[in-house]
Amino acid sequence: MTGDGASEDALLRAVEATLFAAEQPMAAQALALHLGMPQSPGAVRTALDALRAHYAGRGIELVERGGLWHFQTAPDLAHLLRREKEEPRRLSRAATEVLAIVAYHEPVSRAEIEAIRGVQTAKGTLDVLMEAGWVRVSGRREVPGRPVIYATTPEFLAHFGLASLKELPGVDELRAAGLLDPVDDDMIEQTLGRDSPPPSGAEPDDAADDTD
Amino acid sequence: MTGDGASEDALLRAVEATLFAAEQPMAAQALALHLGMPQSPGAVRTALDALRAHYAGRGIELVERGGLWHFQTAPDLAHLLRREKEEPRRLSRAATEVLAIVAYHEPVSRAEIEAIRGVQTAKGTLDVLMEAGWVRVSGRREVPGRPVIYATTPEFLAHFGLASLKELPGVDELRAAGLLDPVDDDMIEQTLGRDSPPPSGAEPDDAADDTD
Amino acid sequence: MAADPHPDGAIAPEMDSDAAWATPLFAEGGAARGDAALYLEIDGWEGPLDLLLDLARRQKVDLRRISILELVDQYLTYIEQAEALRLELAADYLVMAAWLAYLKSALLLPREEQEDPSPEELALRLHLRLQRLGAMREAAARLMGRDRLGRDVFLRGAPEGLRIDRKALWQCQWFDLVRAYGDVKVRGEPVVHMVRERMVMTLDSAITRVSSMLGVALDWMELRDFLPPARESWTNPQLRRSALASSFVAALELARTGKAELAQDETFGPLRLRAVAR
C-alpha cells in the first residue's frame, strides 16, 4: 500500500474477493464501507470498472444492475448451468404393452387400451410414451364422453425401423413364432386376481377380434 | 471451435464458468463429464492449470484439494472478509488431537488413536469430527475383532487448504523420525483387553511393545 | 474415566478451545504460573501421558533430549504433593507413578542385575510415546492454524449452482414390442374364452323379454313362463338358472318402475306377475 499502483492493486483484489464471497449484490458505497474506506467510493468505482474490464469475455463477468454489482456466469454459457443429461432407461413392461396396443389398434382410447390389456393403465404410462415421443394424442372419439384417442408418431416408426404399421407382424405370425402359446392356468389366475377387472366385460372380446 | 486456440479458449471459459457456478468442488473428470467431453479429462486438466495460473495473485484463486477443484478467496484477504462471517465450529482440544491423529495415521482405529493419546476417547469426539464431515469410517481392519477404521474426507482437505495428505504440516519429518509408524497391534489388544483406562496398567507394556 | 475423582477432569479439556490449550499449558514459559498452579491444574491433563508430556516440555529442551530420570522425579513429586494436598488421584495416575518408580530404580541399579527388556529400552519407549503424542499435538495446532475454509478463505457466496436435468432416453426393442403384444393377446384370450363358456342371460335382455311378454299377456303369469323355451342352447342348466335369476331381477325392476305388479301366495310358492293397467 505504498505506491499508488500497489494500493490500487490491493483495492482491486479486495473488491474482487468481497464481491465473490458476498451473498448479495453490493453497491459501490457498501463495498467502500465494508473495506473500511467510506470516504473513497470513487476509488472503489474505479476498481469495479477495472475488474469489469478484466473479466469481459471470460467465463465469468462482473455486472452492475441498478447500482448493485455482482459476479455471474457469462450469459452465453448459461447452458452449462442447466445441463440435460440423457439417461438410457428401459421401458417398463406395462408401458411396452400399452405401446404395442397403440401400435396395433391405433387410434385407441385409454378405456380401450385398458380393455385389451385387462388391467387398468396408470396415467403415467401414457405420459412416458408421449415423453418418449412415440405416442401422441390424435384427437377425440365422437362417442359420448368424447374420449381422447392415441396414435403412434413418425418417431415411433423411425425408432423401430418400420416403414409403416403394416410391417408389424400379424396375429398369425405371432402364433407361428410361438408368441401366442397358451399360458398355464396359474398364470391366468394370477393375472385375473392381481389386476383390477376390465372396465366392461364385453370390450376385451370386441377389441381382441379387431386384429384378426 | 474451429482453430485449436479458439477451442482451447472456449474450454477455458466453460471450465471457469462451471466451477464458478458449482456449489461443490469438482474433479477434472466430473467437469469433463459435465461439459460433455468425458473422453478428454486431460484437456480439462490443462485448462484447470491455465486457469490456476491466471488467478494466481488475484483476489480469487483456483485451488485443487484432494483432486477436487474450487474457487476461493485469497488467504491474505482473510481480514477483510472474516468480520462478517461466523467462525467455524471451535473444536475441543481432544477433537483436534484426534483429527490430527486420523489425518497423519490414516486409516486408524479408535484403539490406535487411544494408544497414541494415552487416554480413552469419548465417543462423541469422533462423532463431532464425522458430523463436521472431516472424518469418515473407511472400513474395518482385517484383524480379530475387525475394528472400524477411520480416515479423512475430501472436505477435510478442502477445509484445511491441503492439496493432499502429503501437504500435512511436517508430515515428512515426522515420518522420517518414525513417529508415524503403525501402532503395534499387540499393544492395542492389551489396551482393549483392560477395563481400566488404557494409560494406567497398560502403559509400560504398551510403551515396550510400541517400538518393536 | 470411571475412576477419575474429578469428573470435570475428563470434560474440561474437551471444552478448551485450541488456542487455550496450545498456549498456556504447553508454552515453554510455564514458569510464570509457578509450582502452586501446577497442583490446581490437576484437571488440566487428560491422563498421565498428557501430564508426563507437559512435564517433559518444562525441561525446556528438545523433546528428544529430555532426561527420563528428571521426568520421573517430577512426576513422582507431583503425585506426592497432590496427595499431600489431599487431592484424590485417578488410579491411572497412581499406576503410572508405581511404574515410573520401578523404572527409576531399574535405571539406578547396577547393570548386570537387569532383566529383559533393559530399563534403558523401557525409558526409550516411554520417550518415543511422548514424542509421538507431542508430535500429534503440534500437528493439531499447526493444522488449526492453517487458512481454513469458512474462516480465512471463502467460497463463492451465491453460486448459481449446476442443475442437471435428467432426461430419460427410453429404450425399447422391436422384439420387446412384439412380444408384449403377444403377451397381451395370450392373457386376453382365456378371459374371453371363459366369458363364452359361462353363458348368461343378461339383465338387459331379460328386461326386454319380460316387458315385451307382459305387454301381450292379459292375466297373471308365472315367472318361469317368461323364460325362453328349453330348446337348443337354452337347455343348458347353467344358462337356465341365469335366465331365471335375470328374469326375477327384471320383474323386480319392472315392479319398481310401476310397469308390473308381483304376487306370491306362500313362501317359495310360484311368483306371478302381470302388467299394470295403464
From TrEMBL, chains A, B:
Residues 203-212 have a biased composition (Acidic residues). Keywords: Cell cycle, Cell division, Chromosome partition, Cytoplasm. InterPro entries: ScpB_csome_segregation, WH-like_DNA-bd_sf, WH_DNA-bd_sf. GO terms for biological process: cell division; chromosome separation. Residues 185-212 are annotated as: Disordered. Transmembrane segments: none annotated. NCBIfam families: SMC-Scp complex subunit ScpB. PANTHER family: SEGREGATION AND CONDENSATION PROTEIN B. This is Segregation and condensation protein B. It comes from Novosphingobium colocasiae.
TrEMBL record, chain C:
It comes from the Bacteria. This is Segregation and condensation protein A. PANTHER family: SEGREGATION AND CONDENSATION PROTEIN A. InterPro entries: ScpA (IPR003768). It comes from Novosphingobium colocasiae. Pfam families: SMC_ScpA.
